[in-house]
TrEMBL record, chains A, B:
InterPro entries: Ald_DH/histidinol_DH, Ald_DH_C, Ald_DH_N, Aldehyde_DH_dom, G-glutamylP_reductase_CS, Glu-5-SA_DH, GPR_dom. The lineage of its organism: Bacteria, Pseudomonadati, Campylobacterota, Epsilonproteobacteria, Campylobacterales. It is found in: Cytoplasm. Belongs to the gamma-glutamyl phosphate reductase family. It comes from Hydrogenimonas cancrithermarum. This is Gamma-glutamyl phosphate reductase. PANTHER family: DELTA-1-PYRROLINE-5-CARBOXYLATE SYNTHASE (PTHR11063:SF8), GLUTAMATE SEMIALDEHYDE DEHYDROGENASE (PTHR11063).
Length: 410, 410
């Protein structure tokens, strides 16, 4: 492991000085190579699919695993789109001259060596590789074991393309020991690795966070709320609530709890129930909710659960303060929305709720690098530090200060 | 410990919404209270001084510990200066409108609860408290045990001032259990604590980094190099080298190793030796250096040592590439300088050396929040993430995205 990481670290300085032109050419060659080698990749993917069948993977997981020519074309297209992004390295973030004439530039630079730990979908392998490469970072990738054969084939194709361009294959590689022990070692190698990004289940993320000495940017759970304030536009509020819950219930920016003002509960809850019934959403409610509509009880535990399913807890509150207090207690700091036409209530909510993204009159489903206009998404950070919320490619850079003097001493 | 931290976290939301006007008024009251209570603080400081004498603390440590009226006035003045800084919370860092009309603002907000672990000097207690308060963060302070009585007196004065303004004293407090075990607990409390800043010796920082589950911004060692390129202005280079080493040898931005181009070594090394001899600097050199001037051998270990003393290793190199390679191997990523009039050499060095601050023709001693113009310094980060190099008060904030919609759904 240590020799492997030494090579990775040594490769980082080569990569940091490549021009955008070279990086983009290499990325386009990688995209071509993926398409040209799709038969090989599909062949290896078949092994994973067969293994998945033997292990009775769910049909959802099997679908995420599956690759065919059009999916590989989409992977290649994603790499080309990453190549087309604005160069993230060398941006002058700030610049000024000190009183004694030092000219200081704060400039974006690559982070160094980044370890990305993720699950099943093999397209993440090429996405993560391209995002790291474009931002000048060496990528150490550790995918799910269900996709091991597919990931190895994809990585081999990418490494061959790197070598054909005269670049070391250490720039993009799969972690050689992908076991739990291998990961446990990797996350303690702060001498060689500059950042770990774990994407996956709560257990994986907790394990990485608790054991890493390398800095971690987590992609943790989203327990998101939508609060319908008494001054909301009722029809719009129902549309947003349905969208936030039902458009894709299994993702982190979907709503898990709906909060409704007591003053409008009698009018709104039956309308909401009708709309959610049409989407076959399972509804649970607190006492006040149960007095108005016929739903099962939402327990303390329900309000604390990220369902990742078409299930919704409902809570009735007195006012915006109680809504904010509920979110403070149960929210995961991911995405929270207020629906209202009341200016002061909206501003209070936006200012006082501590979350990566706070919305007024929109669906929490927009918390996403693509929807934010970042072009390609690294993920959604639930960290408070370094990067928070949707992460674009610029979040894979750090900075240095360049200081230009003319002989200044202290 | 858990109840104490729960209170701290609860207090964070109060503090996050205070206006700059209120925060500044409170900070000025704290400054007044420090001056008004200087007799009390000095009385407690005497206990620490007596204890220090019993424990045979060095005169340097005793001097750092000592407080009198003028030093307390300086502490109060530092708090007033922090109050006068530009409000760090609520800055709009970026803003844009997405294609579907969502208006997104990226806004600076407090981080939350910050634990700061530091050593001996009691003025750090009021400095750190004021920096955290101004940036809207709850401060949990853990000073050195040598200064325990002084720190307790200072914290008590600050807390009384907070309570007189109707604010909870949990906003600024000393960690109740300041033992190693207490620190070990604190740094695992990621449920309540958002950031740990350790400032101190290598052992403390390693302990915190290896055991924390809370994110850490380190203030680690500085093994800084100055490289005299063959096209340097020789007189200026000598002045800068002397300044970088001798002006204050015990600090992290002082030079530890001087690198000299082989083409100018015969001319420069004797001049440098004369200048350093006048400053009583102990010089060590590699083989090539020893052939030109009479100095002891610099070992592999010397090149890897942060002396924090008036000692300097000298290395002769062929060219800028070898200088960069040496810095890559031994540098700590803190501050590195090239002295040259050669444009390409300067740019190559600035671009390829990976350090928080890279200089051309200036002393590394300028790596400092004050010298950078940040007004007050939180410290100097040797992290690559969140904050790198001199940290100003803005580095004690994170951000949220405020998203203004008009009914948008996906």
């Amino acid at each position: 492991m240590e020799n492997y990481l030494k090579e990775a670290k040594a490769a980082a300085s080569t990569l940091a000085t490549l021009s955008g032109e070279v990086k983009n050419r290499v990325l386009n060659k990688i995209a071509d190579a993926l398409v040209e080698n799709s038969a090989l990749i599909i062949e290896h993917n078949k092994f994973d699919m067969e293994e998945g069948e033997r292990n009775n993977l769910s049909s959802a997981l099997m679908d995420r695993l599956y690759l065919d020519e059009s999916r590989i074309e989409a992977m290649a297209q994603a790499v080309r789109e990453i190549a087309a992004l604005k160069e993230p390295v060398g941006r002058i973030l700030e610049g000024w001259v000190t009183d004694n004439g030092l000219r200081i530039e704060k400039v974006s630079i690559p982070i160094g060596v980044i370890g990305i730990i993720y699950e099943s979908r093999p397209n993440v392998t090429s996405d993560a590789a391209a995002l790291c490469f474009k931002s000048g970072n060496v990528a150490i990738l550790k995918g799910g074991k269900e996709a091991q054969q597919s990931n190895e084939a994809i990585a081999k194709v990418i490494q061959k393309a790197l070598e054909a361009e005269g670049l070391p294959k250490a720039l993009i590689s799969l972690l050689p020991d992908g076991s739990r022990e291998g990961v446990a070692k990797l996350i303690k190698m702060d001498k060689y690795v500059d950042l770990i990004i774990p994407r996956g289940g709560e257990a994986l993320i907790r394990f990485v966070n608790d054991n890493a000495t390398v800095p971690v940017v987590k992609h943790d759970k989203g327990l998101c709320h939508t609060y319908i304030h008494k001054d909301a536009d009722f029809d719009e509020a129902i549309k947003i609530a349905i969208n936030a819950k039902c458009q894709r219930p299994g993702v982190c920016n979907a709503m898990e709890t709906l909060i409704v003002d007591e003053a409008i509960a009698k009018e709104m809850l039956p309308k909401l129930k009708a709309a959610f019934d049409a989407e076959s959403t399972k509804l649970l409610g607190d006492d006040a909710t149960q007095k108005i509509i016929d739903v099962d009880a939402a327990t303390e535990e329900d309000f604390d659960t990220e369902y990742l399913a078409n299930t919704l807890s409902i809570k009735v509150v007195k006012d915006v303060d109680e809504a904010i207090a509920h979110i403070r207690r149960y929210g995961s700091g991911h995405s929270e929305a207020i629906l209202t036409n009341n200016h002061r209530a909206a501003e209070k909510f936006l200012n006082e709720v501590d979350a990566a993204c706070v919305y007024v009159n929109a669906s929490t489903r927009f918390t996403d690098g693509g929807a934010f206009g970042f072009g390609a998404e690294v993920g959604i950070s639930t960290n408070k530090l370094h990067a928070r919320g949707p992460m674009g490619i610029n979040d894979l850079t750090t900075y240095k200060y360049k200081v230009y003097g003319e002989g200044q001493i202290r």
